[in-house]
Amino acid sequence: MAEVKVVGKERIILGIDPGTSVMGYGVILIQNKSLSILQYGVIHLSKYTNHELKLKKIFERVISLLDDFNPDEVALEAPFFGKNIQSMLKLGRAQGVAMAAALSREIPIIEYAPRKIKQSVTGNGNASKEQVAQMLKTLLKIDETPKLLDASDALAVAVCHYFQNGTAKSGSKSWKSFIGDNPGRVV
After folding, report:
1. What per-residue confidence (pLDDT) applies to 35?
2. Any idea which fold 11-185 has?
3. Which of 17, 68, 73, 111 is catalytic?
4. pLDDT at 62
5. Which of 3, 77, 111, 181 is catalytic?
6. What is the DSSP letter of 164?
7. Is the pTM of this model over 0.90?
8. Is 144 a catalytic residue?
9. In this predicted model, which residue has the larger pLDDT, 12 or 169?
10. Catalytic: 17?
11. Are 87 and 81 in contact (CB under 8 A)?
12. Rg of the chain's alpha carbons, rounded to an integer?
C-alpha cells in the first residue's frame, strides 16, 4: 500500500478499539475540516490460542498500519472497568502493545473512555454500538455499516479525537487559534 503524505492542516488519525479476540482499527483523513475514511477493519485474533502470539499479531498489524498511513496521532479506547479481572488484564495488555507500537514510531497517543467516545459521536454517552455505527454512516458517508462493530468503534475513536481536538494538532484550544481556524464564525 502506498504511503499517504499529509501537508498543511491535513491530518491522519488512527483509531483503535483494543481487543483480544477482535481488535478494530480505523484510519481517517482530515482535509479542510472534512473527514474521510482511508481504511477500517478488524484484526481477527480468536484463531490464536496463545495470548503472547495474539499480542505479537497486534503489534505487527499496528506497526503495519502506522507504516502504511503514517498517522499524526493514534487514539485508543481506554479499557473499561468490568467484573472479570482476567479479561481486563488481557485487554490492558492488548492496549499496551498497540501503544508500544505507536511509541516505537514516536506517534502521540491519546486515550478516550468509551462513554466519552459515544458522547462525542452521537451526543449520548449511553448510545449503543449500533447507534454509534449509524451516526458514523452519516458523518463519514459510509454506504454500509461495517459487519463487525469493532471496526466502527475504532472509527468512532478517531472521530472522537478529531472532535475533541478540532484542527489544532497539539489539542490547544486558544481563542487565537479558534479565530484563525474559523474566520467566518467571528463577528
Report:
1. 93
2. Nucleotidyltransferase; domain 5 (3.30.420)
3. 17
4. 97
5. 77
6. H
7. no
8. no
9. 12
10. yes
11. no
12. 16
